Amino acid sequence: MAIISQASGQTLPFHAFLSHNSKSKPAVRELKVHLVEAELNVWFDEDELRPGIPWQELLEAGIRDSSSVVVAVGPDGFGPWEDEEMQGALRLAVKDRRPVIPVLLPGCPEVPNLPMFLGNRTWVDLRNGFTDDGLAKLLWGITGKKPRRVPDTKEKKKRHLVQEEKNEEPENFHRRKPDVRSWALNEVLPGAWQVQIQLPHPAGVMGQLQLEVFAHGMFRGTLMTPMGLTTIEGQWQANPAMNQLGFQGMQSNGFQTIPYGVIIQVTFFNQQQIVGVTNVGEQVTFNRSSPPLTPPQFPQ
After folding, report:
1. How far is residue 26 from each of residues 3, 105, 173, measured CA to CA in Å?
2. What's the CA gap between 231 and 229, in Å, rounded?
3. Taking the CA atoms of the chain, what radius of gyration do you get in angstroms?
4. I need a labelling partner for 191 at 20 to 30 A (CA). Which of 44, 90, 159, 166 fits?
């Protein structure tokens, strides 16, 4: 059965690609059974890796042929090739807005160590087993169809009491208050910026970046250094716990396109300026700009 991807409109053969650490294979097998019982087509390596064919190519094809990617996280965390799968999944998420769904398996730590660009996505918690509620949320993430759930008697009573005491709508009961730092960065960052970059090598070399940041989590920009012009685009997020900004996507110099990623430790910000240091030691200063932006010029 072919699946129409809600994000891209493409006709794809699989609802979900199961990305996992091989040490979590037994739990992932069980998860696959539940998804198949829900009449989903699932890409699972044991079923799809054809003997004699380079398996890296088959993994990449499996991700391309799936309308969503389920990243299963068990007690042993991520495997080395699962990181590669996740990079491919995130590139598709940037390009086609496909869901990438973290799933916490039984035995996963109470505070999972998720990478930045996975941690900002709503996860599905199956640490207490493959419950109906947990599986329903996962099916929602994969298919985009929200399940209709009728609360039990105790839950109805609890929500009714909270509504009387706080005068809140029932659906607002479980909402968490956003982290102040995360909300501040999320509010400040969208817009147009002229970014000065002090490159660590060679010493003293400066780069300039014209950057457009969009509130829905995407960005695009043009980076100019004495070595040439590079275009970048992808996805951004603010890390609430670490006061960081992360940018991940693709970069192209006109000859080749390769993955792009940087994490910025923010040391100061307001509505007009953001200052920080990247994970590779670059000093960066964002200055608010009003479109249209003028391309940076370098002396000959």
Report:
1. 27, 11, 36
2. 7
3. 22
4. 90
Q: Position 174: which residue type?
A: H
Vertex 126, ends 27 and 152: CA angle to 5°?
135
- Quote the pLDDT of residue 111: 66
> What is the pLDDT at residue 300?
44
Tell me the CATH number of domain 3-143, given options 3.10.180.10, 3.40.190.80, 3.90.650.10, 3.40.50.10140: 3.40.50.10140
> What's the pTM value of the predicted model, to 2 decimals?
0.51
Q: Distance of CA 125 to CAs 31, 71, 120, 135, Å?
A: 12, 12, 15, 9
CB burial of residue 41 (10 Å; 0-12, 13-18, 19+): middle
Task: Name the stretches of the chain with pLDDT < 50.
Answer: 1-2, 4, 7-8, 150-182, 293-300
Domain 183-289, what fold? Lipocalin (2.40.128)
